[in-house]
């Protein structure tokens, strides 16, 4: 018994306590937080910089963790802890702007997050008051139209590339999809604008449907790429088992392949929607902007939330605070819509994905 205790003590000798990384992190944040507080009290900064305190606290934590581990555990264990601390620090640094953005948008957007914002438009409003119901309806209609255009085209293209495509045609489609993935959004808006001018002969043509066409150009490559990768993950054994039963290829795709990849496909579609729902430049060109409600996708200009926020910020009246408050609230509503879409995607993936045995 004494021998076992001695061996156990030797194994634990030269090791930091189990919760030392957490303790050192808290200590580092307290030190940097105190320093920034001293700077504030000394008049060296105009306001307390929470972001700076957290960032430099993480940097100090990496240094302190490495030094403490090197002195207690040796160089090999210290290198391992250093890499772990760097990975955790990178994660924390990536979260700082995200959390800062969320806190700022929620704090500023809550000023006008009320019933009138969701029930009134900006018609005849020049100062305090007004709302964004016309922009919310426009965003929903344009995004839904773009989704209706993009999903069938993108999904069928992905099915062709995975199940049928071979040779030069498949390589050409893949190349074009890669090119479309990187095009600037303003180019999509210019294309839709030129297309509808040629079709209608009206240089002043503006409509929500034109904006949907422009956004579909940005969404299609995302749907193609994500759906293609999900379809490739479906085991070939499932296809072969279906073929062995005499099921034709098209029915195998519809009954076996697509249901198996449904969760990933829906996630890819939601990523595509999140990509396009905040676009401003294409909609400024082809959808235009208006202060009045417009339910008709195919006639007259239609407002959207990104354009609404842009116009409120760039064309404020006097006083400017009501315009800025409406812009922040529009940004908050956009974030809420994206969150809602992701929740719906998770529910769809959970209830409609095939239940495989574990």
Automatic annotation (TrEMBL):
InterPro entries: MetI-like, MetI-like_sf, Phosphate_PstA, Phosphate_transprt_permease. It is a multi-pass membrane protein. GO terms for molecular function: phosphate transmembrane transporter activity. It comes from the Bacteria. The chain crosses the membrane at residues 22-47, 53-72, 84-107, 132-161, 173-198, 204-224, 256-277, 327-349. PROSITE patterns: ABC_TM1. GO terms for cellular component: plasma membrane. Its main location: membrane. GO terms for biological process: phosphate ion transmembrane transport. It is found in: Cell membrane. Residues 136-345 form the ABC transmembrane type-1 domain. Keywords: Cell membrane, Membrane, Phosphate transport, Transmembrane, Transmembrane helix, Transport. Part of the binding-protein-dependent transport system for phosphate; probably responsible for the translocation of the substrate across the membrane. Belongs to the binding-protein-dependent transport system permease family. CysTW subfamily. This is Phosphate transport system permease protein PstA. It comes from Amnibacterium setariae.
């Amino acid at each position: 018994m004494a021998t076992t205790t001695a061996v156990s003590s030797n194994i634990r000798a030269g090791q930091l306590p189990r919760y030392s990384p957490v303790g050192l992190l808290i200590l580092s944040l307290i030190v940097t937080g105190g320093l920034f507080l001293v700077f504030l009290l000394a008049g060296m900064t105009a306001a307390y910089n929470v972001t700076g305190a957290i960032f430099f606290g993480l940097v100090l934590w990496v240094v302190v963790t490495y030094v403490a581990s090197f002195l207690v555990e040796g160089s090999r264990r210290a290198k391992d802890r250093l890499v772990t601390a760097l990975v955790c620090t990178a994660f924390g640094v990536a979260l700082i702007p995200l959390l800062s953005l969320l806190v700022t948008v929620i704090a500023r957007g809550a000023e006008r997050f009320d019933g009138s914002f969701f029930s009134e438009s900006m018609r005849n409003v020049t100062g305090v008051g007004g709302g964004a119901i016309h922009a919310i309806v426009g965003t929903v209609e344009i995004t839904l139209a773009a989704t209706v255009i993009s999903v069938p085209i993108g999904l069928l293209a992905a099915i062709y590339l995975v199940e049928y495509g071979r040779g030069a045609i498949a390589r050409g489609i893949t190349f074009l999809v890669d090119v479309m993935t990187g095009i600037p959004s303003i180019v999509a808006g210019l294309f839709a604008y030129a297309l509808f001018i040629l079709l209608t002969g009206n240089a002043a043509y503006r409509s929500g449907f034109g904006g949907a066409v422009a956004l579909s150009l940005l969404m299609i490559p995302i749907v193609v790429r994500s759906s293609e990768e999900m379809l490739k993950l479906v085991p070939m054994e499932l296809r072969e088992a279906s073929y062995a039963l005499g099921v034709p290829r098209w029915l195998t795709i519809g009954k076996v392949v697509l249901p198996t990849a449904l969760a990933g496909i829906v996630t890819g579609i939601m990523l595509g929607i999140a990509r396009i729902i905040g676009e401003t430049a294409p909609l400024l060109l082809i959808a235009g902007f208006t202060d009045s409600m417009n339910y008709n996708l195919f006639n007259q200009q239609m407002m959207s939330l990104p354009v609404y926020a842009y116009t409120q910020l760039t064309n404020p009246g006097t006083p400017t605070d009501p315009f800025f408050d409406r812009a922040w609230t529009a940004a908050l509503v956009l974030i809420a819509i994206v969150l809602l879409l992701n929740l719906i995607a998770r529910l769809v993936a959970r209830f409609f994905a095939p239940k495989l045995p574990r």
